[in-house]
């Protein structure tokens, strides 16, 4: 086996997230946050990847053979690993995090653990705050079909032993009700403190306490949770005609009613209740996944913080940039030299400031931008709206196929069109994943100069505080001229632009990467120093993996820093013994992509929007941009070296922590990055 399946590799990544929840070195509420991330990730995995495998299983055998797919075996392996991880997740929650909370005098109680006084308080709270929010549906012969919302927790009520002697003693009823988390204002209820002891209860358990009063006609009321995940794959790539916006709107509507991908259920759920739910929903046994007593652990993002700073990571306030001005013109600063922005260590407000400046500068005539994922209250789009209303030519390439963000993108696309902006939607078979901003300004000498911002991350101020990304501000004509060609192509996809500096998919990115690796192979065969260092979110493309294997066989040193999916298997005698791999999971989500090639002593450094996945190389517009400024290139390399030598948060391919050797000092890359940039700010 020369490659690992994409899905099993992704599950390894989620296992690293779970490791952070297990680590006693991570602040307590951050550990709960990692549990929430793990849960949210797994939901998306079922909605997209497991649903895709199940669709493949339903294909004809001949079709599967042509595709080279063995989905039944893959699905079996994936579900076995998911089950193992869910068991570990439960142990992590029950045996590690609950006791750790207790040590801090925080008690997340179950209904059975309430004292008489707490139970009385909870019963009153139920009557006053919760009861009116409930609307259970009876699963009986009058109900022909039951629709369950995607990613929503439901409580199943199983009623037995009627108190009315006129009713047959074996009479049973099953009801189902959506857990009213949003209407209640959250998943958790704080009970009154008792001295230093603090108590929290799931909303689920508040309802369990109140259930007997809700159904007084029955002596036994069992309350258990279920949750459905639906197939979320839009399959837009297969659509080649018609109005794309209408297709997206239609697909969004279908998503809520997509095929069930997983019904997660409490193993204590009575068989009669489970049978009734299956019958009324049409869910089959293959979609059933045994879970725990509570579902939607992503709700732990809203767990009370008790105003205890020590329960969170220490604050790392965004740093002022060392070469960009805090006030005054950013365009003027960019006209003088290139500047690198490192998010979230330095603030995203430099990007929004630049857009606001461009919107109000009378000399700016045009702004072009790619919008892949934007914030729900986007300052970026608000600046573009201002520019359009002031008569500037605004071109926005809005990606309608950015999974799970289509709603926000549709909303802002409509706003921009109404303001007079030229909104471009990419063809159905092609996503625009590049992160580009281009500003055209008429200078004092009456020439038009272009200013660009290239980035690895989205124009999204909300996620910019969570993801690590690099961005380049530049007025270098070698780069801005080619950025303009990317936008020309997006305006008219019939063109075939040429690039000398940028590596652009779906044009020359793949061939350029192959050529760069091949050059290293030639150097190695001559006995010269040859290496490739890659920092990626995902490495999946078989062609490039084979090229890296060939490089290893030739003696090229290949270092991989991969956060998520990696289908390449490193360190194997005969084909990958010169390849090493590590991945880092820490307080920020690693998102930047960096490609480094020795190139005969003239090292080439690219920063990119593209992971090494087939879809990124062949079916997306992606841009890898070179760092031409020598000082900035050294800056990128230094930050990359911190990741290469992390021995605190780095894991190897098998998810084992990479620990300090001998007299090595501990080095945590994200912490060291912040400290180094802080010194850099003072030094410059």
Automatic annotation (TrEMBL):
Domain spans labelled Polyphosphate kinase N-terminal: 4-108
Record-annotated Polyphosphate kinase C-terminal domain positions: 330-492, 502-656
Superkingdom as given in the UniProt entry: Bacteria
Cofactor: Mg(2+)
Biological function: Catalyzes the reversible transfer of the terminal phosphate of ATP to form a long-chain polyphosphate (polyP).
Cross-referenced NCBIfam families: poly_P_kin, PRK05443.1-1
Name of the protein this chain belongs to: Polyphosphate kinase
């Amino acid at each position: 086996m020369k490659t690992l399946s994409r899905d099993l590799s992704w599950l390894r990544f989620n296992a690293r997230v779970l490791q952070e929840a297990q680590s006693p070195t991570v602040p307590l509420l951050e550990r709960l946050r990692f549990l929430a991330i793990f849960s949210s990730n797994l939901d998306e995995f079922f909605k997209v990847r497991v649903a895709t495998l199940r669709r493949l299983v339903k294909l004809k055998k001949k079709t599967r053979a042509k595709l080279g797919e063995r989905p039944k075996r893959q699905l079996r392996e994936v579900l076995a690993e998911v089950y193992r991880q869910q068991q570990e997740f439960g142990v992590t929650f029950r045996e590690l995090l609950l006791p750790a909370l207790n040590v801090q005098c925080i008690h997340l109680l179950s209904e059975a653990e309430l004292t008489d006084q707490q139970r009385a308080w909870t019963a009153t709270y139920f009557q006053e705050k919760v009861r009116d929010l409930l609307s259970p549906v009876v699963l009986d012969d009058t109900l022909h079909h039951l629709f369950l919302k995607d990613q929503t927790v439901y409580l199943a009520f199983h009623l037995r032993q009627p108190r009315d002697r006129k009713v047959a003693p074996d009479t049973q009823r099953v009801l189902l009700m959506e857990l009213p988390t949003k209407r209640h204002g959250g998943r958790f209820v704080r009970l009154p403190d008792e001295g230093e002891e603090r108590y929290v209860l799931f909303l689920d358990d508040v309802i369990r306490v109140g259930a007997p009063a809700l159904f007084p006609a029955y002596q036994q009321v069992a309350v258990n949770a279920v949750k459905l995940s639906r197939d979320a794959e839009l399959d837009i790539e297969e659509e080649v005609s018609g109005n794309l916006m209408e297709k997206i709107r239609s697909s969004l509507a279908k998503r809520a009613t997509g095929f069930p991908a997983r019904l997660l259920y409490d193993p204590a759920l009575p068989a009669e209740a489970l049978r009734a739910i299956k019958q009324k929903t049409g869910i089959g046994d293959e979609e059933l996944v045994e879970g725990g007593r509570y579902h939607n652990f992503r709700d732990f993002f809203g767990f009370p913080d008790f105003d205890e700073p020590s329960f969170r990571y220490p604050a790392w306030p965004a740093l002022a940039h060392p070469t960009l001005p805090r006030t005054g013109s950013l365009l003027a600063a960019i006209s003088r030299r290139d500047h690198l922005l490192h998010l979230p260590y330095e603030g995203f407000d430099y990007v929004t400031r630049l857009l606001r400046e461009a919107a109000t500068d009378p000399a700016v005539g045009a702004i072009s931008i790619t919008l892949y994922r934007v914030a729900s209250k986007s300052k970026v789009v608000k600046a573009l709206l201002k520019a359009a209303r002031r008569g500037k030519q605004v071109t926005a390439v809005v990606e309608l196929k950015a999974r799970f963000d289509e709603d926000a993108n549709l909303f802002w696309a409509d706003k921009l069109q109404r303001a007079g902006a030229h909104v471009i939607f990419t063809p159905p078979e092609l996503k625009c994943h590049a992160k580009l901003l281009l500003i055209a300004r008429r200078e004092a000498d009456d020439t038009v100069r272009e200013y660009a911002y290239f980035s690895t991350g989205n124009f999204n101020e909300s996620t910019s505080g969570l993801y690590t990304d690099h961005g380049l501000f530049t007025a270098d004509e070698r780069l801005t001229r080619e950025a303009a060609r990317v936008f020309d192509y997006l305006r008219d996809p019939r063109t075939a632009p040429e690039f000398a500096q940028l590596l652009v998919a779906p044009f020359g990115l793949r061939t350029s990467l192959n050529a760069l690796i091949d050059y290293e192979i030639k150097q190695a065969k001559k006995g010269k120093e040859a290496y490739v260092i890659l920092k990626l979110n995902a490495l999946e493309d078989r062609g490039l993996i084979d090229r890296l294997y060939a490089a290893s066989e030739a003696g090229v040193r290949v270092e991989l820093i991969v956060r998520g999916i990696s289908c390449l298997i490193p360190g194997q005698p005969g084909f990958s013994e010169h390849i090493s791999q590590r991945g880092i999971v820490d307080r920020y989500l690693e998102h930047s992509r960096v490609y480094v090639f020795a190139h005969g002593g003239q090292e080439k450094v690219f920063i990119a929007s593209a992971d090494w996945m087939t879809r990124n190389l062949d079916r997306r517009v992606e841009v890898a941009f070179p760092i031409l400024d020598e000082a900035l290139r050294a800056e990128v390399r230094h930050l990359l070296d911190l990741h290469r030598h992390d021995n605190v948060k780095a894991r190897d391919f098998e998810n084992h922590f990479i620990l300090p050797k001998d007299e090595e000092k501990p080095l945590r890359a994200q912490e060291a990055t912040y400290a180094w940039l802080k010194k850099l700010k003072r030094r410059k």
